[in-house]
Amino acid sequence: MDEQSNRNFLLAIALSIAVLVIWQLLYAGPKMREEQLRRQEAAEASKKAGKPGLPSGVAAPSSGGGMAPGIGSPTPAGTSSGVPRAGAGAEAGASGGAGA
Prior knowledge:
Blueprint: H1 2-48, H2 88-98
């Protein structure tokens, strides 16, 4: 029984590796080549248009729509970004007590 169990275990490992290799060859490989071609075409098009392209793998800066409040560009004074400013509580307490 033990010998049969080892044989089944090794067979399962071999079949799993075969599935991964076939998936890489038939699906992931062509997708990666397609993405590389798309990036090369985009880089060539941006060079022809006179725009400097971004290095490969670098995302273009976004307008900040996906960022959490308080991260990214600072908000002007007096506006609320949802994040308390450092020392805001201490200033209010000190000025309220000293003026009275």
